[in-house]
Design goal:
236 residues; 32% helix
C-alpha cells in the first residue's frame, strides 16, 4: 500500500530497515553492502532500497533531517509496511571530551527539546528508549569489530543553529553524550507501534574540541557504524 511519501508496494520493504538522514548515505549502503539491491522508493528523492546482507533481506532508506521528517517515514514503515525494526544510522555532535570525532555513539535513550511527545497528552515527560535486544546486539558487534563505542543518553534537538552557543554544556553536565535530530521521534513511534528501534551514530564533530569532518566523509565515510548496524540487522 503506497502512501503520499512512499510508493513501495506491500512486501517490497524488509522487516528490518536501516534509516539514514541523508538519502545518499542510504544509496551508498545499498550499493556497497547489499546484494541484489532494488530501488523501491524515490518519492521526494527519499531513496529506499531492498536487498540482502549475508543472506538476510534488509532495506535501507533515507529519513530526511529532523523529528517531523523521520516521524513521518518511521511511522509509515511501522504501521503501513509491517516493518519490525528500524536502526537509525547517522551522525552526531559530541558533548563530551572523551567522545571523539569518528567514535561510535549508541543511543540508549533520547532526551529532547522537541514537542513531538505532546500529541499523547501525557501528564509528564516521556522517556524515549531504545530496544534492549538491539542494544545488546550492537554492543556485541562493536566488540567483535574492535570499535570504540559509547552507550548512553543522547539529545534530539530541533535546533541546529542555536542562539545560545553554550546550551550544550547544560546537557553535558547531565551526562548526555551527543546531539542529533531524529531519535526521539523514532523511539516514540517504535514504542507506540510495539516495534523495535535503535540509533547508531558516528561522531561527525565535537562541540567541545571544535574538530569537524568534511561533508563528503559524512555522506560516504563512517563505514564502521554501517557495519555495526548491518550486523545488528542480520541478528534480528
Amino acid at each position: 500500500m503506497a502512501t503520499a511519501h512512499n510508493k513501495a508496494k506491500q512486501g517490497e520493504i524488509a522487516k528490518v530497515v536501516l534509516m539514514c538522514g541523508d538519502p545518499l548515505r542510504a544509496k551508498y549502503i545499498a550499493e556497497n553492502y547489499l546484494s541484489d539491491a532494488k530501488l523501491v522508493n524515490e518519492v521526494r528523492n527519499m531513496y529506499c532500497y531492498t536487498g540482502t546482507y549475508k543472506g538476510k533481506e534488509v532495506s535501507v532508506m533515507g529519513s530526511g533531517m529532523g523529528v517531523p521528517s523521520i516521524g513521518i517515514y518511521s511511522y509509515e514503515l511501522y504501521n503501513f509496511y509491517d516493518v519490525d525494526t528500524i536502526i537509525r544510522v547517522g551522525t552526531c555532535g559530541s558533548y563530551q571530551e572523551n567522545v571523539h570525532v569518528r567514535d561510535i555513539v549508541v543511543g540508549v535513550a533520547a532526551s529532547t527539546n522537541s514537542n513531538y511527545g505532546d500529541q499523547f497528552n501525557l501528564r509528564g515527560i516521556y522517556s524515549a528508549n531504545a530496544d534492549f535486544s538491539l542494544l545488546r546486539a550492537a554492543d556485541k558487534a562493536c566488540e567483535k569489530l574492535g570499535l570504540t563505542a559509547h552507550f548512553g543518553n543522547i539529545l534530539t534537538t530541533d535546533t541546529f543553529y542555536d542562539e545560545d552557543k553554550e546550551y550544550y554544556k547544560r546537557w553535558a553536565k547531565l551526562g548526555v553524550l551527543a546531539c542529533e535530530m531524529e531519535s526521539y521521534a523514532l523511539y516514540i513511534n517504535a514504542s507506540r507501534a510495539n516495534k523495535k528501534a535503535l540509533t547508531i551514530m558516528s561522531v561527525s564533530d565535537s562541540l567541545v574540541t571544535k574538530v569537524e569532518t568534511t561533508p563528503e566523509e559524512r555522506q560516504n565515510g563512517f563505514t564502521s557504524m554501517m557495519e555495526v548496524a548491518l550486523e545488528v540487522a542480520i541478528g534480528e
